[in-house]
Design brief:
Bound molecules: S-adenosyl-L-homocysteine, iron/sulfur cluster
Helix content: 25-40%
Largest sheet: 10 strands, mixed
Number of domains: 2
Number of strands: 14
Number of helices: 14
């Protein structure tokens, strides 16, 4: 097939897909549920639609496309909870919208606050599953750590999220809602400016929903308006998806490397058996980085496993072809964990070797450890039985 034909047919397919999606939405007149996971009664959460899908939905009802921007601005910029408040949209249109769509907020099952000020949100989803997000106070701003899946299928040995297995992908609307709802919740002068996708799940295993959510989160005209420079997606290394992420978004990339030899990484992170270190770093070297940006390599330090001087030196030479900076994450322990965190002196020595070789290497002590909100400590669905008897913080 000629290249042009290919492009045209994929374009046609996109249009066809959107029509099918919108046609399905139109069936809602008869009361059918379209997105069961985010539907409230029989209505679809409007955040599941892209701008183009909303335009198409309006078009099918002879409503001008500029209305889509008005509606989206109300939802994301003005945090509207109902269509009624959209005073610059005709009453008749508002009525039709509210017959079909809801503007959903996540149910806050519990909010815990750490001694260091971090807040862990436990959200209950429409199908009764749970997911966690963590709000981290910095000096002048907040960082929000969001989830991309309920559970995770990657099975990394050190990670508590992995222990509960994979339950399901979050929808686009559920990913966006974590940011929209927490931003709404924050009072005071300190603003939420940074978003990291380092919560539960492997973002690149839920690629289209993650990219769809990023598009809205970073849309300055009709979306939530976050800077893509201040948004980071962290991956365990789904190599085939890396170039797609670089092509379709301009967010920062973080790679959970965590080992410098395949035999260690194979053991810690099963994904390495499919995509070994060399192929992962090759993909990183080819990654279409924005000017003046670097890829962040996350490296958990595990006592006696990956914390030797040789590891530090190998890390230096492995990362040489890449514009890289390194976050050293001392292992966050939890009850049933087999691993331990190295001594402080070992961590500092590891960092110094990297620094001496001209790498920016920062030791990241995760916040929120007292409420199990630190990296790798999120496990919403496993604490479910405990929650049902102790949900005293409900809807703070
Ligand atoms: N699935 C993605 C993003 C979520 S995990 C990924 O793996 O990158 C976010 C980070 O937490 C990863 O860098 C991971 O290596 C780290 N992590 C997982 N468990 C941890 C633990 N117990 N202590 C410290 N960091 C951990
Ligand atoms: Fe999944 Fe990331 Fe945890 Fe690995 S570290 S199990 S990829 S959430």
């Amino acid at each position: 097939m000629l290249c042009q034909d290919l492009i045209k047919s994929s374009y046609d397919f996109t249009i066809l897909y959107s029509y099918l999606n919108i046609a399905r939405l139109s069936v809602q007149d008869s009361g059918h549920t379209i997105h069961p996971m985010t539907a409230i009664s029989s209505k679809t959460d409007i955040k599941e639609l892209t701008r183009d899908e909303l335009i198409l939905w309006l078009k099918l009802r002879d409503i001008k496309s500029y209305r889509a921007n008005q509606i989206l601005k109300w939802i994301y910029l003005r945090q509207a909870d109902t269509f009624d408040v959209m005073t610059d949209v005709k009453k008749e249109i508002r009525k039709r919208l509210s017959q079909h769509f809801s503007i959903h907020r996540l149910e806050k099952e519990r909010v815990e606050t750490s001694q260091d000020g971090s807040k862990k949100y436990l959200f209950k989803l429409s199908d009764g599953k749970y997911v966690e997000s963590v709000l981290i106070p910095e000096k002048d701003y907040y960082t929000l750590c969001i989830s991309s899946q309920v559970g995770c299928a990657q099975g990394c040995l050190f990670c508590l999220t992995a222990k509960g297995g994979f339950i399901r992908n979050l929808t686009k609307g559920e990913i966006i809602a974590q940011v929209r709802d927490v931003a709404y919740d924050i009072g005071g002068s300190k603003r939420l400016t940074n978003i990291v996708m380092m919560g539960m799940g492997e973002p690149l295993a839920n690629f289209s929903n993650v990219v769809g959510a990023i598009n809205i989160i970073t849309d300055r005209d009709v979306g939530l308006g976050f800077s893509s420079r201040r948004m980071t997606v962290s991956t365990s290394g789904l190599v085939p998806k890396l170039s797609d992420l670089g092509r379709e978004t301009t967010v920062n990339l973080a790679i959970s490397l965590n080992a410098t030899e395949d035999k260690t990484r194979d053991m810690l992170m099963p994904i390495n058996r499919k995509h070994p270190i060399e192929s992962l770093l090759d993909a990183c070297a080819r990654y279409p980085l924005m000017p003046r940006r670097r890829i962040t390599f996350e490296y958990i330090l595990l006592k006696g496993i990956n914390d030797s001087e040789e590891d530090a030196k190998r890390l230096v030479s492995l990362l040489r072809p890449i514009q890289a900076k390194i976050n050293l994450i001392p292992f966050n322990t939890y009850e049933e964990s087999k691993f331990e965190c190295p001594e402080e002196s070992v961590i500092l020595h590891f960092r110094d070797i990297l620094n001496k070789n001209n790498y920016t290497a920062i030791i990241r002590h995760s916040k929120g450890q007292d409420i199990s909100a630190a990296c790798g400590q999120l496990r919403a669905n496993m604490i479910l039985p405990k929650l049902s008897v102790s949900n005293s913080d409900k809807n703070i």
